[in-house]
Amino acid sequence: MSKGKSNDKPKRISNGHKVKSSVQKKGSTHSKITKPDNFPFKLAMWDFNHCDPKRCSGKKLERLGLIKNLKIGQKFQGIIISPNGKSVICPLDKSIIEENGAAVVECSWARLDEIPFNKLGSAKNERLLPYLVAANTVNYGKPWKLNCVEALASCFVIIGHYDLAEKLLDNFSWGPTFLKINRELFEIYQNCTDSESIMKAQDEWLDKIEMENKLKKERNKDEDIWMMGNTNRNHESEEEEEEEEEEEEETESDAEYDNLGNVIEKSEKYDKLGNLIEEDESETEEYDNLRNIINKHDLIEEHSEEESEEESEEELQYDSLGNIIANTQKLII
């Protein structure tokens, strides 16, 4: 670039947008910071173009005419919300903000090491924010990760200008949610007097969260144990199951099967009076070729009949023609 030419020529950045360099060059004059027409206090920011312009809350405020973009090295006498601060914002900062306004650093949380904080306004007015939870679409639910408009709104709530915080956040669909999820914390911080009391309140809140998380883990652990049921009862159930299995095995061992593997059911026997006839376990039933039970009583009777017939046949005598020879002894009688 030739000598004497202005370096304010637009340059293209990684996201494809053309922006003017925000670096203040030697000999140039500082533009005067004035309060916007639609807001009672001065608002400013140092924009390092780290964010997506479509999602950047600082750029949206700039388009709405609510905030002014500052150059590196440009003086600002108001409160500066910065990660480089040594103390937190508190109600004592109200007079400084009402007189000189508030400013933020528009940059990525992942690229803080690239920011020349020593060249941004007055170091004595740099402030940290106390513990708060983000509601923006990029870092929703994350503590500490506030964007520009959330940081500015937090300043106004803590110093007692809740209405101004609402006015800024109403430009974002998620804005009212930020005030809602941090309502209890804001009430605590508003009742503090200085940075030390806010830090104390913050530490107490963090201790409370830690204790609640610890109790929640213990409660979940206890619930897991109860979901397992009565461990003593489970042990008893296992013993009962083992006994049932043993009984089933004994029953199966006593069962008899036919040639096809089917269980042969044993029928109970009763006498004429309906009394159960107990069988002698030593006796076993016999079956014929058709698997019919052979009645031992009938066999005995048949056997005795055969014996009597044989005896009768032995007593009778026959002649050569097959005629029975009468017993002479009986004829004589």
Automatic annotation (TrEMBL):
<protein>
    <recommendedName>
        <fullName>18S rRNA aminocarboxypropyltransferase</fullName>
        <ecNumber>2.5.1.157</ecNumber>
    </recommendedName>
</protein>
<dbReference type="InterPro" id="IPR007177">
    <property type="entry name" value="Tsr3_C"/>
</dbReference>
<keyword id="KW-0963">Cytoplasm</keyword>
<feature type="binding site">
    <location>
        <position position="105"/>
    </location>
    <ligand>
        <name>S-adenosyl-L-methionine</name>
    </ligand>
</feature>
<feature type="binding site">
    <location>
        <position position="129"/>
    </location>
    <ligand>
        <name>S-adenosyl-L-methionine</name>
    </ligand>
</feature>
<feature type="binding site">
    <location>
        <position position="144"/>
    </location>
    <ligand>
        <name>S-adenosyl-L-methionine</name>
    </ligand>
</feature>
<dbReference type="Pfam" id="PF04034">
    <property type="entry name" value="Ribo_biogen_C"/>
</dbReference>
<dbReference type="Pfam" id="PF04068">
    <property type="entry name" value="Fer4_RLI"/>
</dbReference>
<dbReference type="GO" id="GO:0005737">
    <property type="term" value="C:cytoplasm"/>
</dbReference>
<feature type="compositionally biased region" description="Basic and acidic residues">
    <location>
        <begin position="1"/>
        <end position="11"/>
    </location>
</feature>
<feature type="region of interest" description="Disordered">
    <location>
        <begin position="1"/>
        <end position="34"/>
    </location>
</feature>
<feature type="domain" description="16S/18S rRNA aminocarboxypropyltransferase Tsr3 C-terminal">
    <location>
        <begin position="79"/>
        <end position="206"/>
    </location>
</feature>
<keyword id="KW-0690">Ribosome biogenesis</keyword>
<dbReference type="GO" id="GO:0005634">
    <property type="term" value="C:nucleus"/>
</dbReference>
<dbReference type="InterPro" id="IPR007209">
    <property type="entry name" value="RNaseL-inhib-like_metal-bd_dom"/>
</dbReference>
<dbReference type="GO" id="GO:0106388">
    <property type="term" value="F:rRNA small subunit aminocarboxypropyltransferase activity"/>
</dbReference>
<feature type="domain" description="RNase L inhibitor RLI-like possible metal-binding">
    <location>
        <begin position="42"/>
        <end position="75"/>
    </location>
</feature>
<keyword id="KW-0698">rRNA processing</keyword>
<feature type="compositionally biased region" description="Acidic residues">
    <location>
        <begin position="277"/>
        <end position="287"/>
    </location>
</feature>
<comment type="function">
    <text>Aminocarboxypropyltransferase that catalyzes the aminocarboxypropyl transfer on pseudouridine at position 1191 (Psi1191) in 18S rRNA. It constitutes the last step in biosynthesis of the hypermodified N1-methyl-N3-(3-amino-3-carboxypropyl) pseudouridine (m1acp3-Psi) conserved in eukaryotic 18S rRNA.</text>
</comment>
<keyword id="KW-0539">Nucleus</keyword>
<keyword id="KW-0808">Transferase</keyword>
<feature type="compositionally biased region" description="Acidic residues">
    <location>
        <begin position="237"/>
        <end position="257"/>
    </location>
</feature>
<comment type="similarity">
    <text>Belongs to the TDD superfamily. TSR3 family.</text>
</comment>
<feature type="binding site">
    <location>
        <position position="57"/>
    </location>
    <ligand>
        <name>S-adenosyl-L-methionine</name>
    </ligand>
</feature>
<dbReference type="GO" id="GO:1904047">
    <property type="term" value="F:S-adenosyl-L-methionine binding"/>
</dbReference>
<feature type="region of interest" description="Disordered">
    <location>
        <begin position="220"/>
        <end position="289"/>
    </location>
</feature>
<dbReference type="InterPro" id="IPR022968">
    <property type="entry name" value="Tsr3-like"/>
</dbReference>
<dbReference type="GO" id="GO:0000455">
    <property type="term" value="P:enzyme-directed rRNA pseudouridine synthesis"/>
</dbReference>
<keyword id="KW-0949">S-adenosyl-L-methionine</keyword>
<dbReference type="GO" id="GO:0030490">
    <property type="term" value="P:maturation of SSU-rRNA"/>
</dbReference>
